[in-house]
Amino acid sequence: MTPTVLGLDGGGSQTRCRLVNAQGTVLGQGEAPASNYHAVGGEAAYHAILSAIAAATANQTVVIRAITLGLAGVGRPRDKQVVQDWVQLLQQDSRLPLTWNLHPQGVQVCPDCEIALVGGLGQEVGLATIAGTGAIAYGRNSQGRVARASGWGYLLGDEGSAYDIGRQGLRAVVRAADGRSPQTQLTEAVCDYFGLDKIEDLVESVYQPGWRAKDVARLAPVVDRVASVGDEVALQILDEAAVELALASRTVYRQLFPDDAAVELVTLGGTWQSQGKLRQRFQQHLARDCPEIAVVEPRHDAVSGAILLARRAVGW
């Protein structure tokens, strides 16, 4: 049977898995729903991981030598232990008719930001600033030390994330309605988004049962679109997001690297796909204090980062 490794990227919106052999050939890929167990619960998260692996390994006669799982919400040791226990269950689960012969270092559980860094840069040393529904800056130096900033979740932080931008857009609209802040084209855009006749009906929309952080995050493109046509309020929201993302990135850089060290930083996450030039604003703010940081586009995806770590674990 063909020796292979599995790489898995499990986030707050979806779970992706890839099966690769010793030569680096992709043999299969699979997708499933979210697997952040803090958000969806342990049972749903385990089932998503199982489903993604099952799809990636369907109709394959292989032996699994290593598996790297990069998952949202596993930053603490007890979280990693939960997932380590799941790997034991996966090996015994009859719904996965696989042969497992794991290398002694063949199971790795890490935060999704780690595999995003490795995939984005194609190496383990550098910085990654992720802005999706949430936001985090993460880095690793050549001594293996890691550091992070932000990423505390939507209640405590995640400044610069889609959630943060969406929430600031909603606040700007209601403040404008009161006369506490300048008028903005965001008012009309938000009313159109929700199908409202008047802004006073916004309360019923946002306080309905089941409305979550991801629903607020979906308003970020609305703010971005209004910013792209020059609305000052929307532009200020984007600029504040860029400032916060740059601050988190500088904080991680200074914890890990000498002041004059040349380091690459990869930007990852859907929030960077901005018509309002969020990425350019971020680069401008970052360059003022840390000109040694080179901001780059992702070279590979996060699943590729998981695969790279799994391959290294078995010496490939």
TrEMBL record:
SUPFAM superfamilies: Actin-like ATPase domain. It comes from the Bacteria. It holds the Pfam family BcrAD_BadFG. Residues 6-310 form the ATPase BadF/BadG/BcrA/BcrD type domain. PANTHER family: N-ACETYL-D-GLUCOSAMINE KINASE. This is ATPase. It comes from Phormidium yuhuli AB48.
